[in-house]
Design a protein that fits this description.
By secondary structure, the chain is mostly helical. The chain contains 9 helices and 4 strands, in the order αβαββαααααααβ. Strands 1-4 form a two-stranded antiparallel ribbon. A two-stranded antiparallel ribbon has the order 2-3.
Length: 198
């Protein structure tokens, strides 16, 4: 989702091909040896299949609202957040979200582990309206989809949790045009379909 949000923000002309993971077309397998989504084909010799790489590539191409800041000032802070998010928090999120697959601990145990990152984010948001600044930066788009997944496991718990600044930020991010666009469903692509542009 973060790749989709970033690509929409940049207004680059991108052909969108929505696919089903269980039935990946051969065209996807031809460009993404890891058979993952998202995958971005830049040309016949270059592709990306890591969402964070796609986010950075897109925003470095066109950054109308200065999400990178002057001289890429927000990129290092975003990289540090993404490192924590994509490894430890994502692991905790997956265990929390699919706790029935990890019966060695109760769901609450995985949630508490994930809360360590939520506490850090809430503290950051006590300093700024958004994670790194008073306006949206690349960091917010990189992290938000994962916080959203965590929140949606038990939205009632999340709304009552002691993270008021995180909840405020979360509600703002939910209302962004980039999230709403990224969350829209598209027709599943098949070879020969008319092209859809992002």
């Amino acid at each position: 989702m973060r790749a989709h949000m970033a690509l929409k923000y940049t207004e680059l002309k991108i052909i969108l091909r929505e696919v089903e993971l269980k039935h990946l077309p051969v065209e996807v397998l031809a460009v993404s040896p890891h058979a993952t989504v998202p995958s971005l084909v830049i040309n016949e010799n270059k592709y990306m299949d890591e969402s964070w790489d796609i986010v950075k590539w897109a925003i470095q191409k066109n950054d109308p609202d200065n999400w990178l800041g002057e001289n890429n000032e927000y990129l290092l802070g975003a990289e540090m957040l993404v490192e924590t998010n994509d490894y430890s928090f994502k692991n905790d999120l997956d265990h929390y979200k699919y706790a029935d697959r990890h019966p060695e601990h109760p769901m609450e145990y995985y949630r508490q582990r994930g809360e360590e990152f939520l506490e850090d984010l809430n503290a950051m948001l006590e300093e700024n309206k958004f994670l790194l600044a008073e306006s949206i930066t690349i960091a917010d788009v990189a992290i938000f989809p994962f916080v959203r997944q965590f929140a949606m496991v038990d939205r009632d718990w999340f709304d009552k949790a002691p993270y008021p600044e995180l909840q405020r930020w979360f509600d703002i991010m939910l209302e962004t045009e980039w999230f709403k666009e990224a969350f829209m469903k598209h027709e599943i692509w098949a070879s020969g379909n008319e092209e859809i542009y992002l």
